[in-house]
Predict the structure.
Amino acid sequence: MRPKRFVIVAVDGGAASGKSSTSRGVASRCEFMHVDTGSHYRAVCLACLDAGVPADGGERLDQFLKKLELSASIECNQARIQINGRVPDENRLRSGAVNSEVSRYAALPSVRETVKSYQRDQVELARSRGFGGIIMEGRDIGTVILPDADLKVFLEADAATREARRREEGREDQIAARDKQDQSRKTAPLQAAGDALHIDNSKLSLEQVIERVVEAVQHCA
Ligand code: CDP
Ligand code: CDP
């Protein structure tokens, strides 16, 4: 299923809309590198919380962000962010504390600038490591980070379905509050690119969604 040429796919959507599981499935079927940009904001948020640096856009935050060294560690086909040489613990990244604070940090232009070039550099990293393409997921991938992506996908699912998915995962998360904050911020809000393929997956299985995206990848290759 590897496409004939290197393909760049941007996936955006609200919390629990299926971005990560769909992107992982597509990456494995198409031999792509998968980049979860939500984990970048989670990692920066966690580093700030650990250091007691508040999300106030102040001088202390700016100085702290300037000192962060970001690098990638590729495990199977997933590029994981390392902060100062270490991959953050996955459970801590998905904890209730990070869930409730991450959108406040992600709304700050200084935080977004900190990860922007790192995120864009992932395309060349994927190419240089011989992947068939890259699939990058987040909130502003099709609109800001990779506006020239070959394929843009916007995933949607109704609120009740998304809440139920998080409950099934046993995770504490106020997804409606997070979506509201992500949609209303001034810098790079959560929104679909004008040319995105919208997939409402409230009533679709994960396999069906993956299949639709794989088909779209084959079309643009
Ligand atoms: O997995 P889930 O959809 O719950 O969240 P995530 O993708 O891990 O993203 C966590 C948070 O990071 C989001 O609620 C946004 O505040 C922020 N984020 C962002 O602002 N821009 C992105 N490209 C990705 C995530
Ligand atoms: O990355 P994001 O927060 O957008 O969502 P996710 O972590 O991929 O998906 C949240 C949960 O919904 C996971 O447990 C998925 O297995 C499930 N899911 C589903 O049941 N049906 C889909 N079409 C997509 C995701």
The CA atoms of residues 39 and 189 lie 17 Å apart. Residues 15-16, 19-20, 37-39, 41-42, 102-103, 106, 138-141, 178, 182 surround cytidine-5'-diphosphate (ligand 1) (CB under 6 Å). The radius of gyration is 17 Å.
